Amino acid sequence: MQITKQKVSPKVQKDILEMFAQLIADISQKEDALVFINDFLTETERIALAKRLAIIFYLDKKMSYQQIRKQIGVSSATIASVQSCLDQKSAGFLLALQYLKAEEWAGKWSQKLTSIFGKKDK
Prior knowledge:
It is globular, with a radius of gyration of 18 Å. It is an all-alpha fold. Helix 3 crosses helix 5 (76-87) and helix 3 (43-60) crosses helix 6. The chain has a domain at 41-117: Trp Operon Repressor, Chain A, CATH 1.10.1270. The chain is built from six helices and no strands.
C-alpha cells in the first residue's frame, strides 16, 4: 500500500478516521464485515491484521514465541512488538483481547449448552 505524500489537514484526517470507525461500528453481521474487509483491504493487509490478532490471542494463552512463530509464521520481532503493546496496556490491543476472550467464552458455552440440551431445529 502506498500513501500519497500530499498532506491532509488534521481536521479532514480526523473526520475521515471518525467516519471509518463509525462504519466499522455499524457493521453488525459477520458476513457484511467479511465483504467490507475483503473489498477495503489488500490480501497482505488482511493477513497482517489477522496475524496480529492471533499473536494477541496466543500471548494471552501463554504460548512461547517459538510456538507462535511456528503456528502462524511471524518473526520474533513482530511478536515482541505486539507483546510490548500489551505490556504498555495499549487500549486498542486490550480491547481486541477483550473481544477475543468474549468470543471464545461464548463459543465454549454454546458448545456446552448444545451438548447438554441438544441443538434446536429451526
